[in-house]
Amino acid sequence: MDRYNELVELITKANYEYHILDNPVTLTDAEYDNYLRELYKIEEEHPDWIREDSPTKKIGGVVLDKFIKVTHNIPMMSLADVFNEDEISEFDNRIKKEGIDPKYVCELKIDGLSVSLKYEKGILISGATRGDGVTGEDITHNVKTIKQVPLKLNKPVDIEVRGEIYMSKKTLELLNKEREENGEPLLKNCRNAAAGSVRQLDSSVAAKRNLEVWIYHLPDPEDYGIKTHHEALEFMAELGFRTNPNNRLVNSIDEVMEFIQEKNDARKELPYDIDGVVIKLDDLHDHEIMGNTIRYPKWACAYKFPAEVVQTKLNDIKFTVGRTGQVTPNAILEPVMVMGSLISKATLHNEEYCVTKDIRIGDIVRIIKAGDVIPRVESVVMDMRPANTKPFEFIKECPICGSTLVKKDAAYYCENDDCSKKDIEGLIHFVSRDTMNIEGFGDATLEDFYNLGYIKRISDIYHLNKYIDELKLIEGFGEKSIKNLTDAIENSKSNSLEKLLFALGIRYVGKKTAKILAKEFKNIDNLIAADFDSLNRIRDIGDVIAKSVVDYFNSEENLELIQELKNLGLNMDYLGTETEEETAFSGKTFVLTGTLDSITRDVAKEKIEALGGNCAGSVSKKTNVVIAGHDAGSKLTKAEELGIDIWNEEEFLEVLNSYL
Q: What is the enclosing helix (H) or strand (E) of 347?
């Protein structure tokens, strides 16, 4: 049960970072996939354990507020991913165990944006994105501009169909050529370009992008007397919808694999991007037999093509120590280009990962960019292994302080509280922007101060003014920079409680959890006095977090630190209110770019977050508003491309001042 709750907390946190903050830091893609699979397995074995907040009950992302929300009468479910022939065979075996003699329809998995189209008496009345699967965004004004979307059907039927909006490779090429001539930044890929175009508030922009669509699903086929999926495709084509001709009715998994290989070989020749093959049971009665999970239909799956893989030499394995004491092995690679990036290092995650893949120094390894972003060692090229390589062994002692490591679950930890690397990482975390936000403390500066003996513990930060004369002798530290730093240290004392809680580095207590705890208990003393049950009753605080908080405040050393910080004048109260009003910032993600005249960007971020907003460092489809000052650059350009609301400094201050 403990492992189950730990997985729920970890994956929920990773989902929040990825989907809301657009800043995944807790888990790598590989870890996320492994943990999610483990969670599904536990829930299959122990259905009575399933929590209402389990991430397996989620389907997709978060709906943007700038569009009218549309509720899907039939949820738009995503598909379970499979990655190899064994997993496809497992899918086939599960179906056969239900007494089904399966026939499958194989279709191309178009790399675009899901859409639902609704018609009354054959007339288009709405178009909506998938959103979170239950609630989407109304994009009717934009889908009407897509040439392949019929405004009137061949028959006067009431119907809903679903498909994929995409941009062709040729369209992207022409669009980028035009943008290059105009001195505009190029669009990264077809999928992002299509998604950004669909989310334009001005439909004339979407119309110029020459988007296309394939229709592939009929949610309620029984209403039309249809018995199979391939009949549904034919029926939709008869009505005037554009269905992809690259589908095939097959009789076995061997034929499925033939289709996959054929399409993988041909994918570069297709005029549009695909990232896999969708496999669906053909007989709709069999769909009813198999049913659905909360997240996926059991009668279909999506095979994902492998990402680009390159080979290089593993020169060494280095071990690093994080602020929690966790020790991580890292691959030091012969530098190699992977999907446009020069890769020289990749995480090896943990001991199990290295042993299972039999990774050894000197091996030729295959490198893959997971999710096209994070490099990882995918496998070893065994037939190229040099002689006399040694099997991987996790180190027994901390690479920094030499203390014996302790194994917990799949990870090793240095539990020496005096380990300098762990101390330095903890100090860096304490002063960082998302915690106490003490400007002037770069990582290198903090490490220098640690080695010079000025700052060994968190409380020493607030005694730094004792060393002003010594600081003046350090290269790069003049009177102004020293004053700015000491002023920032002093100002940090007035931070609200949630900032301090996150800064303390309590295990599993991230930014969001710290805010929940601060709002619930109002001050540090109430939180210290809280027992496991009172913590566990709080929404979003599970067993793992509750135990971690109790353990932290049961430590005499930690209580002494809290008392020291109190004596130094640090605020220990939550400065928000019990009933926070809904504001123009609530629940929205903001990106600041350029120079602001009347307010610093850091102060602007603090005020946005105090009014319920979130701040991100880069513009994405999850951004709600970009605040643009002078000399705004690529972030402003990207916001314009994606149709994101843009406020100048005057507009921002006007909205901000209305709540002050």
A: strand 341-347
**What digits encode the pLDDT tens for the residues 199-223?**
777 777 787 888 999 999 999 998 9
Beta partners for residue 341, in sequence order: 338
- Structure confidence by residue, pLDDT tens digits, 133-161: 888 888 888 888 888 888 888 899 999 99
Q: CA–CA separation, 371 vs 373, rounded Å?
A: 5
Do 240 and 104 meet the contact criterion of CB atoms below 8 Å apart? no
Provide φ and ψ at 631, rounded to 5°: 60, 35
DSSP 3-state assignment of 640?
A: helix
Q: What dihedral do alpha carbons 128, 130, 133, 134 form, nearest 10°? A: -10
Residues 368-373: contacts with CB under 8 Å, at least 24 apart: 368/306, 368/307, 368/308, 368/309, 368/338, 369/307, 369/308, 369/338, 369/339, 369/341, 369/343, 370/28, 370/29, 370/30, 370/307, 371/29, 371/307, 372/307, 372/339, 373/29
**What mean pLDDT value characterizes the chain?**
84
Which SS3 state, helix, strand or coil, does residue 344 take? Answer: strand
pLDDT at 451 over 70: no
At a CB cut-off of 8 Å and minimum separation 6, what does 133 contact? 59, 60, 72, 75, 76, 77, 78
pLDDT at position 24 is 60
Task: Scan for tokens 């605020």, then name that residue.
Answer: 571
pLDDT score of 569 more than 90: yes
Catalytic amino acids?
109
Q: Which residue has the tokens 């994080």?
A: 322
Q: Which residues pair with 334 in a beta bridge?
A: none
What is the secondary structure of 174-229 as a DSSP string? HHHHHHHHTTPPPP--HHHHHHHHHT-SSHHHHHHTT-EEEEEE-S-GGGGT--BH
Say if residue 626 is exposed, middle or buried (CB neighbours under 10 Å; 0-12, 13-18, 19+).
buried
Work out the widest C-alpha separation in the chain, in whole angstroms: 86
Facing residues of 376 across strands? 347, 368
| Residues 523-535: tens digit of each pLDDT | 999 999 999 999 9
pTM above 0.85, yes or no: no
Beta strands in 471-603 (DSSP E): 589-593
Kindly write down the DSSP assignment for every residue of 158-175, as one continuous string.
-EEEEEEEE--HHHHHHH
Give CA–CA dist 463/81, Å, rounded. Answer: 54
**Torsion sign over Cα 504, 507, 510, 515:** negative
Q: Among the listed ranges 56-70, 164-178, 250-264, 368-382, which one has the minimum average pLDDT value?
A: 56-70
Residue in the block written with tokens 């690679």? 333
- Could you tell me the CA-to-CA distances from 389 to 367, 563, 583 in Å, in that order? 19, 53, 61
Amino acid 172: pLDDT: 92
